[in-house]
Amino acid sequence: MPNEALLSSILELGWSSYQSVSINRWQCGVASHVDDFVAEEVPVVLMYNGVSHVVMLATPTNLDDFALGFSLTEGIISQASELQSVKIYQRANGIEVQLKISDECFQHLASKGRNLTGRTGCGLCGSTTLKQAIKPARSVTSDLKVTAMQLTNALRALPQQQQLNQLTGAIHAVTWVTLNDGLVELREDVGRHNALDKLIGALLKRHTDFSNGFMITTSRASYEMVQKATAVGVSILVAISAPTALAIRLAQESGLTLIGFARESSCVIYSHPQRFTE
Fold it and tell me: Of 166, 64, 59, 46, whose CA–CA distance to 106 is shortest?
């Protein structure tokens, strides 16, 4: 059972991010009837200037960060100042996020003709052309180098920062790590790319220099994780699981150092290994 301090800190996040359910557990030949905690998955609609653009299934926390991060990594805005306001409303069937963007950005968005419904793990739902489906990754250049010990220290610290995952066991996390301060910021979500957008949004609010740190994701490194990381100039992306072949190709083309199967004593460097040192 989680301690009271953990429950209180999660409840303070705002919307209900988990539910308590009654379950039957069988363990070592013994059956028991107990309460357990499961992650919540909520439809979240993002509306730009009053027009619905996307419905994502997400963990209903840090949605202002998510709105900013998603808007930038999806190319709806090119800088944080173009997102003029964010208002969040709880509706009967989900959450509505109303975003106000500049007229120029909205006209560009309207010209795409893209309205999508995104499943938790989906990065391409609603794309109507091949060009829309695979967006080019931004080129990144950075002299940043991370040592094996710095990566190991970050990986050791990561589990204790994953409050929702400690409670439910079903949540991805993405964290920002700097060489001087270690784990600086972390966001969680049932969707790996949602967690990344939340983290990027939070860091944009802090006017973070994305060339001075690296990101760790507790998921696999898929195409959209590389695309979103490079969109803000991140030069090192570390994944606990494996990357896809498309993610590797995109990382190679963009200049991103992509690391997979990250453990305290081992990892695999798939692209631009010069940024990882023993």
Answer: 46
In the chain, the N- to C-terminal Cα span, in Å, equals: 39
Give pTM, 2 decimals.
0.89
Token duo for residue 237: 């992306």
Whether the CB-CB separation of 116 and 127 falls below 8 Å is answered with yes
Per residue in 81-127, pLDDT (tens digit) is: 999 999 999 988 899 999 999 999 999 998 876 555 555 556 555 45
Query: Alpha-carbon dihedral of residues 215, 157, 277, 140, nearest 10 degrees?
Result: 10
Separation between Cα atoms, residue 33 and residue 130, nearest integer Å? 50
For residue 61, which of 11, 102, 99 has the smallest C-alpha distance? Answer: 11
d(CA 154, CA 264): 9
Q: Which residues neighbour 241 within 8 Å (Cβ) at sequence distance 6 or greater?
A: 218, 219, 220, 221, 260, 261
pLDDT at 162 over 50: yes
8 A C-beta contact, residue 36 and residue 167: no
* Cβ–Cβ under 8 Å, residues 48 and 103: no
Map tokens 């083309």 to a residue.
253
Residues with catalytic roles: 122
What's the CA gap between 191 and 164, in Å, rounded? 13
